[in-house]
Amino acid sequence: MPRSVRSSTALCALCAVLLAACTASAIPRSSPSSTGRTRDTTGPPSASSSPPTSAPPSTPGSRNGPEDGLPVVDAALARLGPRQRVAQLFVVGVPLSNLAAGDALVGQGVGGVFLAGRSAAAATDLATTTGRWASLTPGPRPWVATDQEGGLVQTLSGPGFDRLPSALDQGRLPPDQLAALADRMGASLHTAGVTLDLAPVADVVPAGTEAGNAPIGANDRQYGST
Question: Do 30 and 51 touch, CB atoms closer than 8 A?
Answer without folding.
Answer: yes
